[in-house]
Amino acid sequence: MTWEIKKALSYSTRDTIGVALGVIGIFSFVITVFAAWATHIIWTIQTLASDAGATVRQVILALIGLCIPPVGVIHGIVIWFS
Questions:
Q1: What distance in Å separates the CA atoms of residue 29 and residue 56, rounded to the nearest whole number?
Q2: pLDDT above 90 as % of the chain
């Protein structure tokens, strides 16, 4: 192989690795967002179905998090770390 072909292949490999890492990063982010929202939904079901009942604040947070997913995602992440 000539030097130009080797150089072109080395750039191609680095680009491919960069794209692969980018795609993996995006998929990881999307999965994390869905998992956090699912955590919020599970919390909502558990809170509303508990025998102790739910406070007005919990019901409002549950409804807002279900209607506006970014709020539910943030609440799901807070649940993970608390």
A1: 32
A2: 67
